[in-house]
Amino acid sequence: MAKKAAGVVFKRCWCPDPVTGRRGGRTCPRLAERAHGSWYFGCYVSDLWGRRRQIRRGGFASKAAVTRARDAVLARSCEQATAHLWTLETWLGFWLSTAGPSTPAPPALTGATSTGISSPPWARYGSPS
Ligand SMILES: [Zn+2]
After folding, report:
1. What pTM was estimated for this model as a whole?
2. Exposed site from 39, 57, 64, 78, fewest CB < 10 Å?
3. For residue 85, which of 48, 58, 59 has the smallest C-alpha distance?
């Protein structure tokens, strides 16, 4: 595993900071207690286009658990990372932007019309009123 892509793991809690009152910091003196706070990680992965995308996850109970989760994210291929980062809206937008007249619709989107992509499947439900 490349050191430069290892990301960070840290512990935080939601006690208000005595000075700023802000929550979610990493300076609470009780963070040394085993059962106080939870573990988070932050790292960068590259998507299919080579863009660096930040991933942050949290709520892990132990440093070992958060390290395993971070390593699993870092071990993903860029295709898997892209699939994980993209929302359905992003995928549909990408597909519509790349679909030509001969591009078959994805299986989940077929059956709504006989004319391909000119009318999306959800069009039959009409516009929200
Ligand atoms: Zn705290």
Report:
1. 0.59
2. 64
3. 48
